[in-house]
């Protein structure tokens, strides 16, 4: 009987004798955890797990018996991320990966530090949020319809105010008094013209400004009365308009050389200085350096110097930030007006790669420091009013809100998961807006408004 079974098996595999059997592929090696970084922190801590072996599709993290998602954030083999469960109790929890076969486990020490948490999610048709003159009211805006809503943060209600007709899914600003909606359409990023649409809700009128081939290079004064537009047509000029008159340019602000890669990134809290990212190259083969220029609106020759005087162009002052100027995409000012935050890339001589960084500039002390951000971060950060933390939305593929410490390297990055049923509009990075006291964070994501209690992370 045994001989018959063996023969039958041979015939089934090779009935004609023309083909030889091949050994089956061995199963992939199971994951073996090497380290956790950090190895301690409060619930919500985003942990980097280094491992050998294979982590197959559908794998997940087991954290003290709680199931958590795994995120391959930096596209490097042997590294995966997971947040410590928000409900984790203080003490030691075992972290492992459940894949084709289970991994070994490593210990993580849960501390009792306070953590931010999701407060609520409201169905609101909006994709951007803006400040008003009230601490409890905000403007909501829809890229799809151009509609503007007023949101009451106290009773969580909203009212439809007007339809602007501005489809600024490239960049949008609503002035604090709600009168002007200013936007650059995403569809026109490839040129040939740079278009800025300005809707005046008081006059119910639209003005379209057309320039060269730059995009998103406009800012609005904090008092909501002046619009500054820059494009790289010749000569390089920042044009100032006193709204609502767009027939006359009230000020022509010269842009200092070198022209290079330039963008208008911000305006000072007192509406006196424009902040502009510019580049300087030491020849075709030389390094390209990024500068943040502070240009006086009323007198460019007396621009404020943060640190370094440029001897080549002595009429303007600059501050060296990064070696990769194309990456400086935003400049924010602290609520007290004493600091600037400029996000971009900085060159790492050791690795030969660009690293994600946030330049913190002390205007009063004329000093600066580069604060390194996680390399996997691919979106704009918003600095909390207290200046201690930066918040960022990682996007639909990860569904995480990150809280990144800026001044204490011993504090871990916190990850707040959110659900995936949000609508993505035009590839937009969600805009984050803090309440006046920094205790709440509002994030519009398509057709919903996400609210996060910062819980002291301010």
Describe the structure.
The chain has one helix and 37 strands. The protein has one helix spanning about 1-15; strands spanning about 30-35, 40, 45-50, 60-65, 65-70, 80-85, 90-100, 105-110, 115-125, 130, 135-140, 145-150, 155-165, 170-175, 180-185, 195-200, 205-210, 220, 225-230, 235-240, 250-255, 265, 275-280, 290-295, 310, 315-320, 330-335, 340-350, 355-360, 365-370, 380-385, 390-395, 400-405, 415, 435, 440-445, 450-455. The protein has about 450 residues and is mainly beta. The strands form nine sheets. Strands 2-8-7-4-5 form a five-stranded mixed sheet, with no helix packed on it. The chain is globular, with a radius of gyration of 27 Å. Helix content is about 5%, strand content about 45%. The longest helix is centred in the N-terminal third of the chain and has 12 residues, at about 1-15. The N and C termini lie far apart (about 80 Å). The model is unreliable at about 1-15, about 285-290 and about 300-330 (pLDDT under 50).
Topology, element by element:
Blueprint: H1 2-13, E1 32-37, E2 40-41, E3 46-52, E4 60-63, E5 66-68, E6 79-83, E7 91-98, E8 106-110, E9 117-123, E10 128-131, E11 137-141, E12 147-152, E13 157-163, E14 171-174, E15 180-184, E16 194-200, E17 205-211, E18 218-220, E19 226-231, E20 237-242, E21 251-254, E22 263-267, E23 273-281, E24 288-296, E25 308-309, E26 317-320, E27 330-333, E28 339-348, E29 353-362, E30 367-372, E31 382-383, E32 389-393, E33 400-405, E34 414-417, E35 433-434, E36 440-445, E37 448-453
Parallel strand pairs: 2-8
Antiparallel strand pairs: 1-3, 3-6, 4-5, 4-7, 7-8, 9-37, 10-11, 11-12, 12-13, 14-15, 15-16, 16-17, 18-19, 19-20, 20-21, 22-23, 23-24, 24-26, 25-26, 27-28, 28-29, 29-30, 31-32, 32-33, 33-34, 35-36, 36-37
């Amino acid at each position: 009987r045994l001989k018959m079974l063996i023969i039958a098996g041979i015939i089934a595999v090779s009935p004609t004798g023309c083909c030889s059997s091949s050994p089956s592929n061995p199963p992939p090696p199971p994951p073996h955890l090497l380290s956790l970084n950090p190895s301690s922190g409060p619930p919500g801590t985003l942990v980097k797990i280094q491992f050998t072996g294979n982590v197959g599709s559908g794998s997940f993290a087991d954290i003290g018996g709680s199931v958590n998602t795994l995120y391959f954030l930096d596209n490097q083999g042997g590294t995966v991320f997971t947040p410590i469960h928000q409900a984790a109790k203080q003490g030691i929890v075992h972290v492992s990966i459940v894949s084709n076969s289970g991994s070994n486990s490593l210990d993580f020490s849960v501390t009792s530090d306070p953590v931010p948490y999701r407060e609520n999610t409201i169905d609101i048709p909006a994709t951007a949020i803006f400040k008003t003159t009230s601490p409890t009211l905000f403007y909501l805006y829809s890229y799809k319809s151009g509609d503007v809503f007023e949101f009451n943060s106290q009773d969580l209600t909203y009212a439809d105010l007007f339809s602007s007709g501005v489809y600024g899914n490239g960049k949008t600003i609503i002035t604090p008094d709600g009168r002007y909606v200013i936007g650059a359409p995403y569809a026109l990023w490839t040129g040939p013209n740079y278009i800025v649409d300005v809707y005046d809700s008081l006059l119910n009128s639209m003005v379209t400004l057309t320039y060269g081939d730059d995009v998103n290079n406009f800012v609005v004064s904090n008092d909501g009365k002046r619009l500054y537009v820059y494009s790289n047509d010749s000569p390089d000029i920042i044009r100032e308009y006193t709204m609502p008159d767009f027939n006359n340019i009230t000020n022509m602000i010269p842009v200092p050389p070198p022209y290079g890669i330039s963008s208008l990134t911000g305006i000072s809290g007192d509406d006196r200085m424009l902040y502009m990212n510019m580049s300087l190259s030491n020849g075709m083969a030389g390094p390209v350096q990024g500068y943040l220029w502070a240009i006086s609106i009323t007198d460019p020759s007396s621009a404020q110097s943060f640190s370094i005087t440029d001897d080549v162009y002595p009429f303007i002052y600059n501050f060296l930030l990064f070696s990769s100027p194309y990456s400086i995409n935003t400049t924010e000012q602290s609520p007290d007006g004493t600091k600037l935050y400029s996000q971009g890339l900085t060159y790492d001589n050791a690795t030969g790669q660009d690293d994600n960084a946030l330049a913190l500039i002390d205007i009063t002390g004329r000093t600066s420091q580069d604060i390194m951000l996680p390399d996997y971060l691919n979106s704009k950060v918003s600095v909390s009013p207290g200046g201690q933390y930066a918040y960022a939305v990682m996007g639909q593929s990860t569904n995480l809100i990150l809280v990144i410490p800026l001044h204490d390297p011993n504090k871990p990055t916190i990850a707040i998961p959110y659900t995936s049923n949000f609508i993505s509009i035009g590839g937009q990075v969600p805009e984050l807006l803090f309440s006046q006291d920094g205790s709440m964070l509002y994030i519009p994501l398509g057709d919903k408004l996400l609210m996060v209690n910062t819980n002291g992370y301010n």
